[in-house]
Each structure stands twice: as structure tokens, then as C-alpha cells.
Amino acid sequence: MKMTFPFLDQCEVLVIGGGPAGTMAAAAAARQGADTILLERQGFLGGNLTAAGIDTIYGLYSVSENPVKMIGGLSDELTDRLRSQNACYERRNTYGAGIGLTFDIENMKMVLEDMVNESGARVYYHAFAPEVYFDEGGTPAGVVVASKSGLQQVQAEILIDTTGDADVVARAGGRYEKPGEVGPVQSCTTVFFMANVDVGQAKAFGKQSMWQAMADGVENEKYDLPRTEGSFHATPNPTMIEANMTRIGNVDTTDVGSITEAEIVGRKQTQEYVRFLIENVPGFEDAYLVKTGCHVGVREGRRAVGDYVLTREDVLEGRKFPDAVIRCGQPIEDHHSGSDTRWVYVRDHGFYDIPYRCLVPQDLTNVLTAGRCLSATHDAHASARSSGTAMGMGQAAGIAAAMALQSDQTIREIDIADLQAKLREMGAPIERKGADGKDTNCVGRNITG
Ligand SMILES: Cc1cc2nc3c(=O)[nH]c(=O)nc-3n(C[C@H](O)[C@H](O)[C@H](O)COP(=O)(O)OP(=O)(O)OC[C@H]3O[C@@H](n4cnc5c(N)ncnc54)[C@H](O)[C@@H]3O)c2cc1C
Fold first, then answer.
1. Which of 233, 280, 207 minimizes the C-alpha distance to 105?
2. Is pTM beyond 0.90 here?
């Protein structure tokens, strides 16, 4: 983009998007000493977790009988802070996604904000970045920010795209894939919350009975439910549940018309699921709808094409890479357009590595990416997109950006062993070979119960 706008701020590392990935990227870069700015279009941090209303972090542990820690460092600190506020607990996912950390959404907003502020990074809220601008040599030099202050510029040396939709990579001229054009796209979900629920009674009814009642209701044409599955979860609030049931297919999250339609359809579906729950599931008789998420939950937008593209085989075979920066044991969780969801597990319920190259978009020299716009195929993305994994990616990208600046190297030239050592020091369990040639784990906690 050639136009110039008034100057808002400048920094060394600019993180665009304050979801789980971006929040950790900003905190990690700032803690490494980089002058860091985080831009977020909402008025709070957390992305899907807080805005869409996802109440549980997955990806922190492997999915097995004896879970092993997958992500560590800043996510440990986040957990400790939430725990000290009595605002989270661990629970096992009923579909088999492993141990999750269920949290209170308002506490999550505050804890993430504290972590970023204490790191020294500067945050701008209500700051949407629709465009990238370039220096004379054609290298991305910052972004245009649209806010109530008008259109302004933020200048930066390294940009980290954590928008979930690879907005920055796309505008900077990097390669990306758009699901729906390249393969299918995961459906969107409007998450909703209901209160005054007898949660014990409702849980005792059982998921299979609820799904059967859904299927019967659809067959009898009593309810219009696109998904005859889905779940509701207890929350830290004793009478409130969070429900993940609606299904909106074929949404182009980067098209304003398509995403608007998704919001409308999601709210319509919510009314129908609320009616179904009150009329069919014991414990919901006196319940009422408290709220829907601030926006529809988006599972998949544009995916950056990086120096390496993670594949379905990498995931299912549990492949390891020399430039590993994150481990992931999440199954491929495919929310396709039918009435069910497909789950495919990593071999032996083990884990695979996400290589650093998946965070380095092709054709760009000073842009990194992290979170759900990583470089992966549709199937691999359906495993790697969990919020815990996104946090791990953000942390790795933030440290890598700071390292590049401090060593006066490009993001491709940094010493990967040094990056891995820094991650390990923070508590991230990256595999390495010991003197005896065997794989050893890093220091860090295992599951805490
Ligand atoms: C319905 C649903 C259920 C899910 N369930 C779970 C679950 O139970 N557990 C789990 O771990 N994961 C779950 N996920 C997946 C998980 O929530 C996401 O994959 C994760 O949030 C990805 O994090 P992220 O930071 O990459 O992206 P996001 O969380 O999407 O964050 C992106 C952030 O960038 C901001 N942004 C976007 N574009 C711009 C821009 N141009 N300028 C400025 N800001 C911008 C957004 O406002 C947002 O805050 C679920 C997802 C959905 C949709």
C-alpha cells in the first residue's frame, strides 16, 4: 500500500492480533528485551477464548492415558495465575481431546492483560490492521491501523501475524491458502451460555441421550438443528453452562458479507438449541440464555504457506523435526459440514513436532506467523489449531523475533538450537538428544492434577 497516514507509534516487534498466539508472542518478545506493540481489534485480549466464548484450553498435554506435557513456559504462568484466582480447573474432554483447562472468561481477559502489560509490551485496543505498508525496497515496514482515531501507521522491524486469518501475510504479499478454495473449510460455531441450569442433573442425562433426542427432534421436524451432536460444559460458575452446538458451514471469514451472514445464522441456530435444551434435557427446565460470544467462533481462515507445510501424515505419524519449537498431541478434529464431527488420533496417542519453518511465511523476510494461521494443510491445521498449541507457537515466534533483532540476523538466519534452548529454559518441552543419544525432556512440570 503506497498511501501514508498519520503516525501512531513505532516498535521493533509488532504483533497483530491479541488471541492466545498473539498475547504470548507479545509477552515473549518483550521479555526478551524487544520493544513490542500488540494490536487487537477488540477491547480485550484472548481471541476465540474470550471473544467467541471458548472456555477450555486444549493442547497443553498429550492425549493419552498418561498425559505428558506438550506446551510450557508462559502457559504455565497463565495457569498459575488463573489458579491463584480460583478461576480454572483441569478436566478431561469427553470426546477424547485430552486434559483441558477450563477457565473463567473475565479472569482470563485480566490475566492475559496483566501478563502483556508486565512484559513491557504496549497494547492498542480497538485497533484493526487492514493493510500493510512497505519501505522503498518493498519490505513490509508496518501496518495501517483503523480505529476511532482514523487511519494511522505503526512502524516496525518485524511483524508477527497472529490474526488467525493471516491478514498480514496476505496483505504483505506472502503466499497463503484459503480454505473453501483449497480443500474444505471447518465450520464456524456461535457459542452460547445458559444460566440457572441444574448442571448435575443435566450431565446425568448423558450425551448419547441428548444426541438421540436431537436426532428424534430433527426427524419429527420439531427442531431445526444442523448438528445432532455437540456438548455443553460446566463452567466455574456453578449454575452456568457453555454450549458448543451450532454449526455454520462454508463461511469465508475474510469476506465481510459472509461473516455477517454467519453471525445472523449463528444467533438463529442458538435460539433453536436453547429451545431444544429447555424442552428436552432435564436440569434445563428453568434455564435461560445469558449471552452468545461477542462474535461467531472461527476455526479456520486463511493459512499462511511457510517454508514448511505441516501435513496430515506428519500429524498422524507423530513426526519429529530438527527445528521443532512446539509439540502437539491433539487429534485431527474435523468440524465438516455434516451433522457429526470426525476425530482421527495421532499414532499411539503420541505427539508430533511443529517445526519453526511452519511459522516462517514463504517470500517474506521479516514476517512471522503463529496460531491458527500457521502453515499447515486443512487436516494438519485441524489438529494444530488448539489454543494451547497456539500459545506455544506465539511464544516461539516472539522469542525468534527478538533473537533476530538482537543478533542482527533475519528470521531465517537465527540459531535454531539457541531458540530451542531458550524455549526449554522457560519450561517448553522440546525434545533434544542427550549425550547418550536418547531423547530427553526439558525441565518443566508434568500434569498437575
Ligand atoms: C467454536 C470453537 C470451539 C473451539 N474449542 C476449543 C477448545 O475447546 N479448546 C481449544 O484449545 N481450542 C478450541 N478452539 C480453537 C481455538 O479457539 C483457536 O484455534 C485459537 O483461539 C487460535 O488462537 P489464535 O490466537 O491463533 O487466533 P484467535 O483466537 O482467532 O485470535 C486472533 C486475534 O486476532 C484479532 N484480529 C484478527 N484480525 C485482526 C486484525 N487485522 N487486526 C487486529 N486484530 C485482529 C482477533 O480479534 C483475535 O483477538 C475452538 C474454536 C472454535 C471456533
1. 233
2. yes
